[in-house]
Design a protein that fits this description.
The chain is mainly β. The chain contains four helices and 18 strands. The N and C termini lie far apart (about 55 Å).
Length: about 425
C-alpha cells in the first residue's frame, strides 16, 4: 500500500515545464489578447435583476450549448481563467497524466475562444462552423500522452471547429457534416462552460473532444437518431497511419426525460495498420433531465493489441462516472461527480493505474443580455494506485525528476465569461 508523501521513480524532465508554454510564442497570446478585449464587457456588465436561465448540459455532437438549431448566423466568444490550488505543491505545477486544467498554483488562461456559426435548417440548408482558440487547454487535448503529433499540430490545435454541413431533403432530414466537428463520443466538452464541473473527468480527458472527417446524422423518428462517421483517427492531431477510422452513434429517448446513447469506434491508431491492432472503444451514456436536476451516468471501455511491445499484449481501459447537477435557486447551482478510471497497461494515460476521484462544484451565474458570466468554486480529490500510479508532489528525486504521491486535493476557482449572439 502506497503512503502519502512516498517517492516513486518517474522520469519527467524539467524542460517539459517550459515546453508547455510554447503556445504563446506563436498565436496563443494574440488570441488571448483578442479574447480578453471581447470578453471584458461580458465580465463587468451584469444585470442581477434578470432571472437566471439555466443552460442545458450538452450532448456531444449537438449544434450548440443547448443543442437547438436556429436560422441565421451566430457568433460568440469565451474566456476561461482558472486558479487551481494543488495541496501537493508540485515543483513543476503540473497535474500528471492530464491535458486540461493541468496548470496548478498559478492563474491560468485555460481557454480563449472566438467563433462564427450558421446552422443548417430547412429554410437554409447549408451550415458551417469556424472558430479559433488558445490557452493551456488547447495544448495537448488532441493527443494521448506520448503520441507523435502530425506536422503543423502546434498551429492546427488553435482551430476550434472548421466544418460545413448540409441538411438534405431525405425522409426526416439527413444532416451531413464534413471537416473538424464536435466529438460524437463522450458527455463532457473541452470547454468548461458546457459542463457541470470545472475540471473534466478522466473519461473525458482520454476520449476525443473533436473529430476530423465526415458524419451523417438521421432522425429516424422523434425518439431515435442514428449517426455514422468516418474520421482520420481517434485523436485528430496524432500521427498514426494514413487510414481512416469508423464509428456510429445512436441516441434514443426512452421517456421524455430519460435518454440512452451509445457510440462505438473502430480504427487503426498505431503505426501498424493490421486489423489485429485496431482499437475498439465504446462510450455509453444514460441521461435524465428534470426541471431543476440533471443526472448522467457514463461508462467507457476500450481495448487494442499493442504492436510496439513484445508479444503484442492487449491493452485495456475502463472508466465510469455519475454526474449530478442541481439548480438550487436563482443563479446558484451545485454539481457532484464521483468517478473511476482503470488504465491497465498505461496506454491511455501513460501510466498503469487505477484512479478514484470525486468532484464537487458550486456555481454562481451572472446573466446579462447575450452574455453569461459563471463563477465556480470546486473541490476535487483524486487517488491513484497501481505500479505507475501517483501525482506530482513537492520535491525532486534528482534534478528534473519529480516525486509522486498517491493522492491529491485540489481547490479550484474558475471565471468563465461567455458571449453568444441570439
Amino acid at each position: 500500500m502506497r503512503q502519502e508523501g512516498a517517492v516513486y521513480p518517474f522520469m519527467i524532465k524539467a524542460k517539459t515545464v517550459n515546453d508547455g508554454h510554447r503556445w504563446h510564442n506563436r498565436v496563443g497570446w494574440p488570441l488571448i489578447a483578442w479574447g480578453l478585449f471581447a470578453a471584458v464587457p461580458v465580465c463587468v456588465a451584469q444585470d442581477l435583476s434578470r432571472p437566471s436561465e439555466e443552460t442545458a448540459i450538452p450532448v456531444a455532437g449537438s449544434s450548440g450549448p443547448t443543442g437547438t438549431a436556429t436560422a441565421g448566423w451566430r457568433y460568440g466568444a469565451y474566456l476561461d481563467i482558472g486558479g487551481i490550488v494543488n495541496f501537493n505543491v508540485p515543483e513543476n505545477d503540473l497535474w500528471r497524466s492530464r491535458t486540461t486544467a493541468s496548470r496548478h498554483n498559478q492563474a491560468a488562461p485555460n481557454m480563449v475562444l472566438a467563433y462564427v456559426r450558421k446552422d443548417s435548417t430547412e429554410a437554409s440548408r447549408w451550415g458551417m462552423e469556424l472558430g479559433v482558440q488558445g490557452g493551456y487547454d488547447s495544448v495537448d487535448f488532441a493527443f494521448l500522452l506520448g503520441e507523435k503529433k502530425v506536422d503543423g499540430a502546434d498551429v492546427l490545435r488553435h482551430l476550434h471547429r472548421a466544418n460545413a454541413s448540409y441538411l438534405a431533403p431525405v425522409g426526416n432530414g439527413l444532416t451531413v457534416t464534413a471537416g473538424l466537428f464536435n466529438s460524437l463520443m463522450g458527455y463532457e466538452s473541452l470547454y468548461a462552460k458546457d459542463n457541470p464541473n470545472y475540471t473534466r473527468s478522466w473519461i473525458a480527458d482520454n476520449t476525443p473532444y473533436m473529430m476530423f472527417g465526415v458524419n451523417a446524422a438521421y432522425p429516424v423518428n422523434d425518439r431515435l437518431t442514428v449517426t455514422a462517421f468516418v474520421i482520420n483517427r481517434y485523436y485528430h492531431l496524432a500521427y498514426t497511419v494514413a487510414q481512416p477510422s469508423y464509428g456510429g452513434k445512436w441516441s434514443y429517448a426512452l421517456t421524455p426525460r430519460l435518454t440512452a446513447m451509445q457510440t462505438l469506434y473502430w480504427g487503426p491508431d498505431q503505426t501498424d495498420a493490421s486489423l489485429e491492432f485496431w482499437r475498439l472503444y465504446g462510450n455509453h451514456i444514460l441521461e435524465w433531465k428534470g426541471d431543476e436536476v440533471t443526472v448522467a451516468a457514463s461508462y467507457d471501455v476500450g481495448t487494442e493489441n499493442m504492436a510496439d511491445q513484445p508479444g503484442s499484449p492487449r491493452a485495456f481501459v475502463m472508466g465510469g462516472n455519475l454526474m449530478v447537477k442541481w439548480h438550487v435557486t436563482g443563479p446558484w447551482s451545485v454539481a457532484l461527480r464521483p468517478e473511476f478510471y482503470w488504465d491497465r497497461n498505461g496506454r491511455w494515460t501513460g501510466a498503469e493505474q487505477f484512479v478514484k476521484a470525486i468532484t464537487s462544484t458550486i456555481e454562481y451565474k451572472l446573466p446579462y443580455r447575450w452574455t453569461n458570466t459563471m463563477l465556480r468554486v470546486e473541490h476535487r480529490y483524486d487517488e491513484s494506485t497501481g505500479v505507475g500510479g501517483g501525482f506530482f508532489r513537492r520535491g525532486e528525486i534528482s534534478p528534473g525528476v519529480f516525486g509522486l504521491a498517491p493522492s491529491q486535493h485540489l481547490l479550484v476557482f474558475g471565471l468563465l465569461c461567455v458571449f453568444d449572439s441570439p
